[in-house]
Amino acid sequence: ASALDHPASLTFSATHACDTSLLAIGRDRPLGIDVEPLAAAAEIEEIAATYLPVECVRTIRRRPQDERAEEWVRLWPGLEGCSKVERRGIGAPDRSPRFG
After folding, report:
1. Contact between 16 and 1 (Cβ < 8 Å)
2. Does the pLDDT value for residue 19 go beyond 80?
3. Residue ranges of the alpha helices (H) in 1-100?
4. CB under 8 Å to 88, separation ≥6 — which residues?
5. Taking CA 30 as the corner, what is the angle to CA 88 and CA 76, rounded to the nearest 5 degrees?
């Protein structure tokens, strides 16, 4: 039997940033992935306040200034990946945390 006997059960998610691409392939479950370069964190304060759940914004702001970009890059891909799985837009009215 071939791995593609039931292609309708395959799911995938793809993303890219700069020179990095990422592809996830699964079966019988929704997938959502994202990748962000650390340089993408240049405007984290404004973007975080607009799109991230309030608790995530607090987490970023509690970090020393020189560590906020790293925290942003840790949190943002999770938000975007979850938004893909849940098929909702980023910054949807319900911004409650759904990821760690």
Report:
1. no
2. yes
3. 44-51, 54-62, 68-85
4. 94
5. 50
